[in-house]
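Example record

One chain of 66 residues, shown exactly as stored in the release files.
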Amino acid sequence: MSSAKRQQTMAKRNRERAVEEKRTLKRLKKQAAKAEKAAGGPLAEDQLTGLPSEAEAEGEAEPNAE
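Predicted structure tokens for this chain:
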């Protein structure tokens, strides 16, 4: 009896690749947060998205602003 191997479908390969990419991004995000915490500053969600934080929007971040 010869063992027949079933060929892996492209859809399955794509699903596995998507899961691996998601895990990688999550791992990188956690490492960045850990590094930021070790550096002494809080890592705000706004910094990840690139949007200004609420304090910057209200002008509290710049005490010299007149």
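Notes: The two ends are 85 Å apart (CA to CA).
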